[in-house]
């Protein structure tokens, strides 16, 4: 027979073995349950992600939510932009076209030049207000579908007299006939809108819009040494400038700078329609001396900034008629 101490020792050992077995079994059960919980959690997350993606896809195709390409400005090349303008604006009926492929017209009686283009920049430091398409759109508010030399010829045809571009060391401001620049466009409802161009330009770091006049400086020509052809220098971009260039077709009558560190004007963003919007520029000759040419102009505000766009300017914006035959 076993002694009492031996029986107790075996009982204790047996109990220890039972406890260890229970611990091992419990660990296995716990791991199994944990894996199931984790699997359920992953499945729930995957279902949630799938549901979110499905919801986003449904929103993207829903007629009530704008598609991404409608929310953002898509990139268009020069041909596509010109087609957009052609579809938006009809040629002005009372004006004469100067070129079969450039969108530029004149009316001698009213001394008007009309040039079509698009919004190129609305958040940028500026060297130009307007440039020819394919030149300096990165620093211009408007890109027009006409060469600078053709605008020069148009201004001559309506009676403008070229002066000279700005000179430096010592500085001499640009001179020539005063030219008022108006911008016309159609809003989202198809209604005519217009502004004088100075209201789209502001002094950098302020809410003060540009108030100086542009004059017909006339740019310059040079003879290419290789081709022996005469080149109009402003065709490289300097059509309507806000920074002084010695090659400007039109320039301000105040001192500005063309070095990047010294630019003093930028786009008045909140006043400008979205990029790629078709616009029509109307260049109107003025008999007034250019505002900004006199020292006391610094403290004054020109009357053209206070006035509405004249009706005889707005009339030059003619929407392209809707063709109902294709509906």
Provide an overview of this structure.
- By secondary structure, the chain is an alpha+beta fold.
- It folds into two domains: 1-71; 73-326, no CATH class.
- It contains six helices and 17 strands.
- The longest helix has 58 residues, at 4-61.
- The protein is globular and about 55 Å long.
Number of structural units classed as domains = 2
Order of helices and strands: HHHEEEEEHEEEEEEEEEEEEHH
Q: How does the helix and strand content classify structurally?
A: alpha+beta
Q: What distance lies between the first and last C-alpha atoms, to the nearest angstrom?
A: 111 Å
Largest β sheet strand count, sense and barrel closure: 11 strands, mixed
Mean pLDDT: 83
Q: Write down the Rg.
A: 35 Å
Strands, count:
17
- What percent of residues are in strands? 15-25%
Helix content: 25-40%
- The gross shape turns out to be globular
Give the count of helical stretches.
Answer: 6
Residue windows where pLDDT falls under 50 for at least 5 positions: 1-8, 17-26, 28-71
Brief rundown of the structure:
By secondary structure, the protein is an alpha+beta fold. It has helices at residues 4-61, 68-71, 78-88, 148-157, 303-306, 311-314; strands at residues 96-97, 104-107, 112-119, 128-132, 140-144, 162-164, 175-176, 178-186, 192-196, 201-203, 214-216, 221-223, 230-232, 240-241, 250-252, 265-267, 278-286. It has 2 domains: 1-71; 73-326, no CATH class.
């Amino acid at each position: 027979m076993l002694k009492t101490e031996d029986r107790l020792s075996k009982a204790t050992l047996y109990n220890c073995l039972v406890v260890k077995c229970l611990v091992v079994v419990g660990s296995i059960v716990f791991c199994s349950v944990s894996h199931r919980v984790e699997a359920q959690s992953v499945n729930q997350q995957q279902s949630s992600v799938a549901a979110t993606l499905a919801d986003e896809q449904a929103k993207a195709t829903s007629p009530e939510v704008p598609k991404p390409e409608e929310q953002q400005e898509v990139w268009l090349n020069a041909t596509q932009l010109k087609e957009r303008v052609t579809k938006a604006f009809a040629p002005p009926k009372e004006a004469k076209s100067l070129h079969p492929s450039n969108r530029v017209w004149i009316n001698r009686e009213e001394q008007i030049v009309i040039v079509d283009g698009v919004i190129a920049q609305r958040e940028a430091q500026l060297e130009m207000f307007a440039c020819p398409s394919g030149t300096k759109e990165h620093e211009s508010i408007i890109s027009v579908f006409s060469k600078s030399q053709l605008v020069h010829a148009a201004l001559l045809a309506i009676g403008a007299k070229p002066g000279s571009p700005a000179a430096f060391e010592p500085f001499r401001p640009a001179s020539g006939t005063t030219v008022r620049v108006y911008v016309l466009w159609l809003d989202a409802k198809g209604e005519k809108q217009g502004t004088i161009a100075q209201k789209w330009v502001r002094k950098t770091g302020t809410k003060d819009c540009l108030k100086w006049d542009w004059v017909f400086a006339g740019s310059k020509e040079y003879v290419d040494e290789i081709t022996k052809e005469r080149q109009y220098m402003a065709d490289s971009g300097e059509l309507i400038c806000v920074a002084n260039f010695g090659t400007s077709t039109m320039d301000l009558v105040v001192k500005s700078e063309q070095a990047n560190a010294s630019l003093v004007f930028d786009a008045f963003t909140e006043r400008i329609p979205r990029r790629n919007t078709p616009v029509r520029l109307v260049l109107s000759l003025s008999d007034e001396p250019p505002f900004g040419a006199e020292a006391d102009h610094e403290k004054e505000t020109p009357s053209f900034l206070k006035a509405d766009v004249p009706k005889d300017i707005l009339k030059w914006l003619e929407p392209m008629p809707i063709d109902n035959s294709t509906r």
